Amino acid sequence: MPSISDNVPRPEEIRRQLRHMLQNRRFSSSERFEKFLNCIVGKALNNEPITQSIIAAEMYPKKFSFGEITDVRSIANSLRPALAAYNAEEGQSDPVHIRLPYPPKDKKTKLKVGTPYKPLFSYNPVYPAEREYQRGLLHLSQLSPMGLAYALLCFKKTIQLDPHRSAAHAAVAETYFINSLYGCPEPATYYLFRARKAAALAVKLNPESWRGYAVLATVHTCLREWDKAAMAFEKALKCDASETRNYSGYAFYLLAAGKQDKALQLVKDKAETKSGEPAAERIYPLFLYATRQLKPAERLLRNLHDTFETDWIVMLTLVLVFLALDRPALALKANQRLINTMRHMALIPEIWPGLTILVYLRLGGKYERLARDKITELERHYEQTGDREPLQLALMYMGLGKPEKAISQLARGVDDRYPFMTWLHLWPIFDPLRDRPAFKALLKKLHLPVSA
After folding, report:
1. Residues 232-262, buried b or exposed e (16+ Cβ, 10 A)?
2. Other residues' Cβ atoms within 10 Å of the Cβ of residue 427
3. Half-sphere exposure of 24 (CA within 13 A, CB side)
4. How far from 395 is each of 288, 340, 353, 357, CA to CA, in Å?
5. What percentage of residues in the chain have a pLDDT greater than 70?
6. pTM of the predicted model, to two decimals?
7. What CA–CA distance (Å, rounded) separates 211 from 276?
8. What domain count does the chain have?
C-alpha cells in the first residue's frame, strides 16, 4: 500500500518552500545559511552527490584548496536546530518542511558518505491536503469495502486540494484495484478501468513514481495485458527496485506469469523479515496454497491464527487449505470466522456465500439444509441487487455437482476480468474441473505468458 516514500513534495514545491524560508529572519540574516541551503537543496533536486568536500569546494573554494572543510560541519550543526525550530514555529502551517538529518549519537554507526548533508523533504502533516492523504492511508489499510469507500473520498479530496500530487492519484488507483477484488457493488472492470486511468495519470505527473508504475502493472496483469504489465513493472524496478520487489502486486504478477520460485522467494522474504507491506505475513500462506504447498501453508496459518483472528485473508486461506486437505469440518469453523470478520467490514451481508455453500455441501448430512437455505438467500440477494458475482456462483455449482454450470460462471469471470481469475490456472479449489475440455479451453482465454 502507499507509503511515506511515495509521497514526497515535487521539485517546484521544494524550490518555492526554500524561497519562502530564505525570507525568514532565521535564514535571511545569515549569508552562510542561505548559501548552504541553496547548495544542498539544489544538488538534492538534481540528484547530485552531496558530501562535506563537495559543499566546501562550492562554498569556500580557496579554503578547500588548502584542505580546509571544517566550516561545512560547523554550519550544518547550526542549521539543523534552526530548521527544526522554523518548522515547529514560523513554518508550522507551511505545506512543505525541509530538514537536515542529525548524525547518529552512536559513533560506531556508519552512514553512507554525505548522508548528514542530504536534506529531507516532506509534506507538513497538518497541511490540509496532506492531512486528507494520511486519513486515506489509514482507511485503505483496513482493506475492507467500508474502509475503501472512505479512503477514496479522502484521496479525491487530496487531489481537489492538490491536483498535481502523483502519490494521491496512485493511491486512488490502488483503492480502485482493491475494490475490484471484492467485485461489488460494481463489476471488476468498473474498478480496473478507473484504476488504470488513475495510475497512468500518476506516472504522467511523476515519471519517477515506482508505485504508480507498480499499480499500473498490477492492473494490466488483471486485464491480461501481459506485455504492458511486464513493461510497467520494468519501469517500476528502474525507479526503485527495492520498493517494487516489496510490493505484493509484483509477486502476484510473477506467480501468474509462471515465475513461481521467484514469486515465492519474494513473499517469503517479506513475511520472515516483516519488511515491505504489512500484509506480507498474511499473504505468504495464500501463495503457498496457490502453489499446492498445503502442509507448510497450514503450519503458517495455525501460527498466524491467534494473532490475526479477525483478518479476512488469513481466514479465507484457512478455509481453502482445509478444503484442499479434505477437512471440511475445520473449513466450516474457519469459514464461520471469515463470515463474522467480513460482516462488520462489508457493505453487503456476506462476500463469499458461494464458498459457504460449498463447505456445507462437502460436509453433507444436516448441512445440506443449511446449504439450500444459503442458496435461496443468495438468489434473493442477486434478484434484489442485479449482481451475480461469477466466482460465488461457480463455487455454488461445484458444491451442487454441476461442473458445466460452474465453468460457465468462471468463463463469465474471465470475460469480466475478475482479479481472482488471473490465477485460475493455479487455484487448487478448481482441481475437480481441471480435466474437463471446457475448463482447458477457458484457460487458453487467459493468454498466459509462455513461461506460465
Report:
1. bbebbbebbeebbbbbbbbbbbbbbbebbee
2. 17
3. 17
4. 21, 20, 9, 8
5. 90
6. 0.83
7. 13
8. 4
